[in-house]
Design goal:
By secondary structure, the chain is an alpha/beta fold. The chain has helices at about 60-65, 135-145, 165-170, 185-195, 210-220, 230-240, 255, 270-275, 290-305, 320-330, and strands at about 5-10, 25-30, 40-50, 80-85, 100, 110, 115-120, 150-155, 175-180, 200, 225-230, 240-250, 280, 310-315, 335-340.
Length: about 350
Amino acid sequence: MSLPATHREVRLAALPDGELTPGHFEVVTAPVPAPGPGQVLVRNRLMSVAAVMRPLTLADPDAFGLPQLLHKAGEVMRGAALGEVVRAPGTDLAPGTLVRHRAGWREYAVLNAPEVSPVDPEVLPDPAAHLSQGFTAWLGVVRGAGVRRGDTVFVTGAAGGVGSLAGQFARLHGAARVIGSTGSRHKADRLTRELGYDAVVLRGAGSAGSIEEQLRAAAPDGIDVLFDTVGGEQLRAALALARRNARFALVGALAAQLSDDALAPTAISTLDLITRSITLRGISAVDHQDAMPGYLSEFGRTLREGALTYPYTRLTGIDQAPGALCELVAGRHLGAVLVEL
């Protein structure tokens, strides 16, 4: 196929100092890159926008431990994307192969062959589901917390791309009561009406009391599981309501990451952990790739059966990506946000 001479990509114009705005990004025209031996040129078709992609300003970037999440001014943004192989000299990838990778935020990308993963379009009923954060949600529920029948589960950030699926997976794995947290009454109503949450606590202005007070009312007998994407006040509230032998799966720390200090600690009582035998486990998808087949099997089956839904907003055009990220960070979307290129 003939290739255009140029394509568009989103670069970080400046690191944010406070509120993230579209002005922190620029959509630029650049030459379409050429692959070398062992590399793959991909025409991106669909990319993910997630709150975790918010550019961070850190005094000591090396201390964060996750350089793949950090962006420098002038660099092209990065994120999960689906695309079609255009050229792949010296590899086994045929043109037209659908692949998943982490070089989104651009219309064309060149990657080393091991950096792309061929996607079987038959595994999931909706190709967009390959860009879901469902694997993180499933891991936290199944391996991180080991949700079992009868559990009361609290999911923080329940309206996000991870939380909107975590509550559903918790129910599928036997949870008797699922409670979520979010930042608006509108999203709280959607969580209970559309995604099966039994109750939702609200953070921020307009909430009926502190997170702990609301959680105590929603779970008067305490909680067995925390699925945490937020940290901070919500982690402390969950600890206050944790029953003996509660299991906490920590998959995100948005309270700190979306603040001015992405490394801000959360003060908790280690004595509480010991006396009530509470387990805290940080869990990252990077360490559990062996679980991917099991996750895809369950995710695909439950989507086809209608036992689980994948909520997402789809926008069109790469120029929509900066605004979408700003809106997502501000809490204006429920579920995943995808941009069609």
